[in-house]
Amino acid sequence: MTDTKAVKAALRTQHIETPSWAYGNSGTRFKVFSQEGVPRTPQEKIDDAAQVHRFTGVAPRVALHIPWDRVEDYAALATYARDRGVRVGAINSNVFQDNDYMLGSVTNPDPAVRKKALNHLLDCVDIMDATGSRDLKLWFSDGTNYPGQDDIRARQDRLAEALAAVYERLGDEQRFLLEYKLFEPAFYSTDVPDWGTSYAHCLKLGPKAQVVVDTGHHAPGTNIEFIVAFLLREGKLGGFDFNSRFYADDDLMVGAADPFQLFRIMHEVIQGGGFSDEIAFMLDQCHNIEPKIPGQIRSVMNVQEATAKALLVDGEALRSAQQAGDVLGANAVFMDAYNTDVRPLLAELREEMGLDPDPMAAYARSGYFEKIRDERREGQAAGWGA
Ligand code: LRH
Ligand code: MN
Ligand code: MN
Questions:
Q1: CATH of the domain at 265
Q2: Interval 159-216: pLDDT, tens
């Protein structure tokens, strides 16, 4: 697409979901740093997410993590969000932070722990009913640390059983997204370590089970855009957890470590017909040392920039070079789009949308940070998670 009007029209339709946990304090296992003005409640996380939407215009949803975002009344929380111009997005289930889950959640050898974990997943679907959320995101930290610790195949059976029960409970408009991760916290074997395992389980269950690609969850050097292309072709890509990494699951700002990879991923999304709300574009990041709201704004802008460049790929020229076996020509078409400076186009688009062309500067000028810094001095700031 080289017509900039069409590129801008497409960009208007993209929605990037921000995670509630990005607004809380976070760190590594060595230290969680406290920042000023950090939200103390799920409502305050939603207030901050609403700012990201206010300045970017393309982040209208915020994902929750349960029980980190525990409230009495989830329908009321959804109304709270709507009143601030955003909606509750994906519900992320947390079956990794209780002592009971030391040897696993849904794959634990103890049936009582498995039952507890499954009940939590089913409770999350109840929450989705209350908030009107479409997607349940399932990530299991389950795995083993030592060879022989547990039966790898039996753990797959237990996983399949739990997934089938959750699938059964989903409403017609609901889906679950099964997330994989190579390692961590399990260091020997992980029960859902890769897209193939996630895909196989989802395929057995049906169309409401989809794979989610967290860009930080692969071995170094993995060709993530191949996975994206493959899953889209099979109708099995449900969404993304975007972030970037230099080493492992670093959860840094998307597009910070490897903007070219993000562009290649977005190219496959567009080529594969995945540029629609059927694919959830979510951020899954932590801002350990940078301010959180600007970190999210920057990340949303990074996704937009990669998307704009991918939309600029001249598809016709690319196809004819590919079909002619013109290796260098095809690569040049691809790189021309990547090397285009799309910042002026995005600034123009924002002005057309009634936004400030520079969301980072507009946020800094808005006084919102000074306001929350003063208002949130008392009480306990939310940490990674709670
Ligand atoms: C696991 C993960 C998963 C969790 C989130 C906090 O590493 O990516 O998506 O829900 O981090
Ligand atoms: Mn994730
Ligand atoms: Mn992760």
A1: 3.20.20.150
A2: 999 999 999 999 999 999 999 999 999 999 999 999 999 999 999 999 999 999 999 9
In a domain, 384, yes or no: no
Whole-structure pTM over 0.90, yes or no?
A: yes
The b-or-e profile of 336-371 (16+ CB within 10 A means b, else e) is bbbebebeebbeebbeeeebbebbeebbbeeebbee
Report the amino acid identity of residue 118: L
Could you check whether the bond before residue 67 is cis, i.e. omega within 30 degrees of 0?
yes
214 lines ligand 1 (CB under 6 A): yes
The total domain count for the chain is 1
Q: Which domain holds residue 236?
A: 4-375
Type of residue found at 117: A
Mutate to test the pocket of ligand 1, among 181, 212, 286 (most ligand atoms within 8 A of CB): 181
Q: In ligand 1, which atom is closest to the CA atom of 93?
A: 10
Domain presence at residue 224: yes
Ligand 1 pocket test target in 179, 190, 242, 254 with most atoms within 8 Å of CB:
179
pLDDT at 1 over 80: no
Planar angle of CA 27, 259, 194, nearest 5 degrees: 65
Q: Whose CA is nearest to atom 4 of ligand 1?
A: 139
Q: Provide mean pLDDT across the span 264-272.
A: 98
> Ligand 1 atom closest to Cα of 94?
10
Least Cα distance to 246 among 237, 236, 256 occurs for 256
What spacing in Å lies between the alpha carbon of 365 and ligand 1's midpoint?
A: 32
Cis peptide, bond prior to residue 185, ω within 30 of zero: yes
* Distance of CA 251 from the midpoint of ligand 1 (Å): 9
